[in-house]
Amino acid sequence: MSATSAPVMEVRGLRKAYGDRVVLDDVSLSIGAGDVVCLIGASGSGKSTLLRCLELLEDIDDGVIELDGREVSDPMVDPREVRRSIGMVFQAYNLFPHLTVLANCTLAPRRVHGVAKAEAEARARELLVRFGLGDHVDKHPDRLSGGQQQRAALVRALCTSPRLLLLDEITAALDPELVGEVLDIVRDLAAGGTTMVLATHEMGFAREIATRVCFLDGGRIIESGPPDEVLVAPKEPRTREFLRRVLPQ
Amino acid sequence: MTVREDRGWSPSPRELQRRRTRALLARRRVLVATVATVVVIGGLAAVVLLSPGWPRVHALFFSWDDARDALPDLVKGFWINVKMFLVAEPLILVLGLAIALVRQARSPYLVPLRGLAVVYTDVVRGVPTLLLVFLFGLGVPALKLAGLPKDPFVWATAALVISYSAYVAEVFRAGIESVHPSQVLSAEALALSRVQTMRHVVVPQAVRRVVPPLLNDFVSLQKDTALVASLSIFDVLFTARDYANYNYNYAPLVVAAVFFVAMTIPLARLCDWLAVRLARRERAGAL
């Protein structure tokens, strides 16, 4: 834990509602450099919405989001400028099917970050090779397996060297035997000190890599703490009930 | 599941401040839009109205008296265009969809029809609509076949139906092909027949996607009903030209254009409304 250094991202009193349906209610969260925060909870508990709010893909209804000490939930802040320094990976990969894997990975570095083509391609190639996609650089995404596509999507998010990486249930759409290859990469990144917030259903994995686990229920963070507390000896009855349902006895 | 209720929440001062900022930004956008509109529209109007020949153009095209004089005849003529359009449109939809479906059919019995459908779209789309109108409007009655109607209105409508059904068939075909193969797969997995798959799964999705290009073709059809003026049918265009030739004034043509525009706009709004309603129903809450 890096509780001493200034947080990369700080969320206070976040609220998000669609009409009368309150999806996030008074959520507060502090993410320090090198933290790996795992969001757990049933579907519909607000994990994905929280990640989308952090990426400024949604307008929030109350509360404050700060990135490196600057409030980014201010309407005067250009959300694109904030998103430049945050990477996001989605459950359904969301690769662009009309571009090759390499072109997927170099689109943002070249068009948003102004990196020269050769440089962007060299960096993307290096990452793709490192994550075992060296043979698929020039293929289109639909030619790859789900696990390969999700690894490519991770590389695409990493190519811009984001300050913070948001992963939204990135293994939920994968076959069980493909989950491992994606989690290996995330484990690598965690060991390398990448700051991450991930929504996940993989409790064992969360316990292994998380510096902190947050249990969400009904749009609130019910319990939060080190994985050995929240996942092994939860204080809240609702957390216990949830874990009983998802963990095999 | 937890009941999601408002636990006595009221917006924080920061949120209230943020709402004020958002409202301010919204007002600024409205202001910019208004100024931009006034400058562009006003500028264009100034260029036209201040041009040296404007009084002459105004008298020739925008003479109120001539427009009023020609109006009753123009309305009568426009009714012919509307009738033709209303008759042709449903026929084109049915024929176009039928041709598209025949081209997609896999039954061996339908192979000759498939070939015919391909030739039909290729040839008909290549022939200028005006020639089809002449061929049908003048050619078919000249055959003097017993039992066939002689009314040029009927044959002009037939020419439009044939011409446009070829375009519309291609639009439908593009829509059908854009439906993902997994949809056909899951319909087949439910043991639906190929016809049932088309009828209940593929075509409904395809039609939704092709509404905007279909609308495009129908707007074009509405205007092309004026091609029958070349058969000396007193539609709105022929009536307007007739007036122009006698009185040397083109105001009736402008009136005819206004009629066509007025007919197009409700159709466009209807399509927009349908699209919005569908999107709301099928994608509610989803990203």
Describe this protein's structure.
The complex is a heterodimer of chains A (249) and B (287). Chain A is α/β, with parallel strands linked by helices and 249 residues long. Chain A is built from nine helices and ten strands. In chain A, the strands form two sheets. Chain A has a six-stranded mixed β-sheet, sandwiched between helices. Chain A has a four-stranded antiparallel β-sheet with strand order 2-1-4-5, with helices on one face. In chain A, α3 runs parallel beside α5 and α5 runs parallel beside α6. The mean pLDDT of chain A is 92. Chain B has 287 residues and is mainly alpha-helical. Chain B is built from ten helices and no strands. Chain B is flat, with a radius of gyration of 27 Å. Classes of the chains: A alpha/beta (249), B mainly alpha (287). The interface between A and B is medium-sized, with 22 and 18 residues.
What layout of secondary structure does this protein have?
The complex is a heterodimer of chains A (249) and B (287).
Chain A: E1 7-18, E2 21-32, E3 36-40, H1 47-54, E4 62-67, E5 70-71, H2 79-83, E6 86-89, H3 101-111, H4 117-130, H5 146-158, E7 164-168, H6 176-191, E8 196-199, H7 203-209, E9 212-217, E10 220-225, H8 227-232, H9 237-246
Chain B: H1 13-49, H2 54-61, H3 64-104, H4 111-126, H5 129-142, H6 152-178, H7 181-189, H8 194-224, H9 236-247, H10 251-282
Helix pairs in contact in B: 3-4, 3-6, 3-8, 3-9, 3-10, 4-6, 5-6, 6-8, 7-8, 8-10, 9-10
Largest sheet of chain A: 6 strands, mixed
Number of separate strands of chain A: 10
What's the tally of helices of chain A? 9
CATH homology superfamily name of chain B: MetI-like
Order of helices and strands of chain B: HHHHHHHHHH
Label the overall shape of chain B.
Answer: flat
Give me the side-by-side strand order of the main sheet of chain A.
6-7-8-3-9-10
Number of strands of chain B: 0
CATH architecture of chain B: Orthogonal Bundle
Q: State the distance separating the first and last CA atoms of chain A.
A: 30 Å
Percent range for helical residues of chain A? 25-40%
Largest sheet: number of strands, sense, barrel closure of chain B: none
Largest interface pair: A-B, 22 and 18 residues
Shape of chain A from CA axes?
globular
Return residue spans of chain B where pLDDT drops below 50 for at least 5 consecutive residues.
1-5
Percent in strands of chain B: under 5%
Q: What's the CATH topology name of chain B? A: MetI-like fold
Unreliable runs of chain A, pLDDT <50, ≥5 residues? none
